Amino acid sequence: MNATAPDALQLARSRTAFVLVHGAWHSSAQWAATLQALARLGAAGYAVDLPGHGLDGPLPGGYLLPGQPGLLTERSPLASVTMDDCAEAVLQTLRAARRHHRVVLVAHSAGGGPAALAAERAPDLVDALVHLSAFVPAGRPRFLDYIEAPENATSRGHSLSLGDSAALGAVRINPLSPDPAYVEELRLAYYQDTPPGRFARWRAALGTDVPLSVPTTPVTLTPERWGSIPRTFLRCAEDQALTPAVQDLMIAETDRAMPGRRFTVRTLPGGHSPFAARPAELAAALLA
Question: Where is the AB hydrolase-1 domain (predicted)?
Fold first, then answer.
């Protein structure tokens, strides 16, 4: 007897694993609600901690002290982390997930660089790619090339960076800033549609540093490897960190660079972090 359509759908979901790669200052912990939503829908998920991120990630020495001494000048403990290190963390998780019938690699924001490099190096480990308002290095090789593009000029993220990034070896923010204006800018950039009570907890869970290598290291992709993988771009329609205009620029430049296989493009409502604002809707979009 042939399986019914709902049975076939559930079987497909049960054979699918999502590997989730976080963006700057985040960690695997921020994917928890999305992983739970995926599990309720019958799919497995693995969340990656990029090097130096997560509950055990190092922080600047004065960050949690009164007055936060040295926050603007202390060299980052993540300054030596490379793009290769980040890609290897993704590859390790992809290898673990490969026991599933189908693996979908999902990257958010700055996580697009490490995820893309991992897929380029081992396309056999990835059956589909999803960029969730994420950097795509096919058109321009560095995330910085898009961050500083005119199409991203209205991004609220520009005002959050502290100190001299080159001297720090990282792009540093201050989630625990005592300045209400700074905290509000952080909320509007990354969590504009997250309930206020939840935002207070989410910002406290953020790290301070993303290695400078992540936005500045060129990533080279080829049509034969990365370009051979089916891919979807999930646009965030009201994103104030990576603007819709620069998301569209990345999509268009990638499609020109890799004409043999173009992005499937879907648009989600809201801001930069749907895993915080509406994780159940995000899970449903990923399964779609």
Answer: 18-285
